[in-house]
Amino acid sequence: MAVSRLVRAELARHDWGRLRCGCGRSGAHLPGTFETILEAAEPREALGARLDNHLEISGNLFEVAVPAVEVILAALAGPLPDFARVELLDVLAVLVSGDSYAGQPADLGEHCRLKARNGLWTILQVGYEHEAEAVRDILWVVDPDQPRAGYHAMGLAKRIKRSRR
Fold first, then answer.
1. Is the overall model pTM greater than 0.90, yes or no?
2. Most buried residue among 46, 79, 81, 84 by CB atoms closer than 10 A?
3. How far apart are CA 2 and CA 109, in angstroms?
4. What are the sequence ranges of the domains in the chain?
5. Neighbours of 13 (CB within 10 A)
6. What single string gives the DSSP state of each residue in 104-162?
7. pLDDT, tens digit (0-9, with 9 covering 90-100), for 78-93
8. 116 contact partners, CB below 8 Å, separation of at least 6
9. Are 132 and 85 in contact (CB under 8 A)?
10. What superkingdom does the record give (predicted)?
């Protein structure tokens, strides 16, 4: 698949080279990692393109996590192969649940949750169309509006129940 213009814009908007990555280098290599995942038509084409241990290590976030949330949301706004959508949602779930790695700015987790909250409608759309269970888990973490979160969590639970039949 081609990387969308929206994703390319989000990748270009950030100075990845100035951000610390979990691998110990700058985040300059991460746009290429995102592109590999998003261009792959099937999982084997994305082998080795991993975001874990770069954006976070065991839920402890690095500076690159915050712009990565925006890239993930941009990618989720368009068509994706199932494996890429699942991978990005799994990464997003970890980022919005995480906290800062030692020596990183203290508020990275809150910034990730805020960015995800700004893309809530995109996340919900993905849940209603594709990945209800993963989205339900993300929803509870990022949406402070409990009546809205509860309503959508129930709708997603119905979708999960139907898909298990």
1. yes
2. 84
3. 30
4. 5-163
5. 12
6. S-TTHHHHHHHHHHHTHHHHHHHHHHT-HHHHHHHHHHH---HHHHHHHHHHHHHHHHH
7. 999 999 999 999 999 9
8. 69, 73, 92, 95, 96, 123, 138, 141, 142
9. no
10. Bacteria
